[in-house]
Amino acid sequence: MAQGEYGAHTHGRPSGGVVSALALAGHSLTDGIAIGLAFQVSHTVGFGVALAVIGHDFADGLNTVSLLLTNRNSRRQVFKYLALDALTPLAGAALTLFIHVPDNGLLIYLGVFAGFLLYIGASDVLPEAHAKHPSAATVALTVAGAAAMYIVISLLP
Q1: How far is CA 37 from CA 8, 23, 48, 123, 140, in A?
Q2: Tens digit of pLDDT for each residue in 56-84?
Q3: Which helix H or strand E contains 86, and what residues bound it?
Q4: Residue 109 to residue 38: CA distance in whole angstroms
C-alpha cells in the first residue's frame, strides 16, 4: 500500500490548542485568586505573591501562544486566547473582594500554592533545563534566579 492511501498526516487540531489555552486561562484565574488572597494577609505578602505570579505568567502566555500555533489556530484566535490568559488573573484577584478566608485558611492555601510552584520548579523545570542544555549559561541563570529570589525575600519585612 502506498503512503497516500491512509490520507494526509498532520499534527495537531485547532480544538486541541483551544482546550489547552482554556486550561492555562483557568490556571491563571487561580493565580489571580492567590494574589488577592495574599493581599488579605498583608500588602507585603500580596506584593511578594504578585511579583512571583507575574513572572510565572509570562511563561503561561508563551505556552498559550505555542500551543495554539502548534495546533494550527489563526493569529486572531491566538490573540483572543492570549488576552483571555492575561485578563483571568485580574478576574481571579477581583473575585477575592467577595471572599473572606480566615487567616489560618489563607496560610494553608498560600503554603500549598507556594509549595506546588516550588515542586514544579524543582521536579520538572530545573532538571529539564539542565538535562537538555547542560551549559555554563544554564547553571549561571539558575544561580541568578536563586540570587534574585534571595534579594526579593531579603527586601520583605
Answers
A1: 50, 21, 12, 26, 34
A2: 888 888 888 888 888 888 889 889 999 99
A3: helix 75-95
A4: 9
CA distance 136 to 140: 6
Interval 27-39 mean pLDDT: 91
- For the chain, give the percent of residues with pLDDT over 70: 83
Report whether 148 contacts 141 (CB < 8 A). no
Q: List phi, psi (to 5°) of 10.
A: -130, 160
Residue 33 cell numbers, joined: 485568586
Spatial contact of 92 and 29, defined as CB atoms under 8 Å apart: yes
Length of the chain: 157
pLDDT beyond 60 at 20: yes
Cα–Cα distance, 50 to 33 (Å, whole number): 10
Query: Are 60 and 27 in contact, with CB atoms under 8 Å apart?
Result: yes
Cell of 10: 498532520
